[in-house]
């Protein structure tokens, strides 16, 4: 299928680092887009097959061709889709059909984190993803110039503790309006988890699996934005309790045991 071709200057392209992979993005008609070939190749998939699938469903993925100039001065045509459609394409890939374990794990990582990381990168100037449990891992160069390297290091160290406290404070504030629900920080209290030493990444782990549980049941997930600092998911409290009771506690217990090198714990029986 022939697609409309749009032009972009090479200076308009933004390259984001995602767990060591390079993802090429740009803005088109006010919407952030992502070039698909780098992502497909990062996942170890056949570009020809995925390209044909995307083009065959162009209305579904809102795909377009973007023409830009490569390093050698030649024109390059890149198939792209809006970032908001990336999860839709990722969901069309079944990791269970991938025999190679590393490829399968890479696909699952992209399915869980890449779209949200790209959204944060474009809308907040900061990609808050990866295994750092909400700590800033990638900065837009313009933001980096404004903040300075030293400020970034301070933010990296403090963000993991500051953001949850901001959530509690703003949820309780009538001046900004209450967002009802629970965050991963609240879940720690619900399961009586007070010592999180050595558990870097636990918040992201809980958040991703709880988000999947909500999505499977059509339960909306709210968010509290903090300007250019962060965006924190706020989950439905009853759905969160149901997830904990139906296997969520066990998942958390197993994760903690694996991180700390202990047998699976009988975690946290007293939480509400």
From TrEMBL:
<dbReference type="InterPro" id="IPR018875">
    <property type="entry name" value="Antirepressor_Ant_N"/>
</dbReference>
<feature type="domain" description="Antirepressor protein ant N-terminal">
    <location>
        <begin position="16"/>
        <end position="127"/>
    </location>
</feature>
<dbReference type="Pfam" id="PF10547">
    <property type="entry name" value="P22_AR_N"/>
</dbReference>
<protein>
    <submittedName>
        <fullName>Antirepressor protein ant</fullName>
    </submittedName>
</protein>
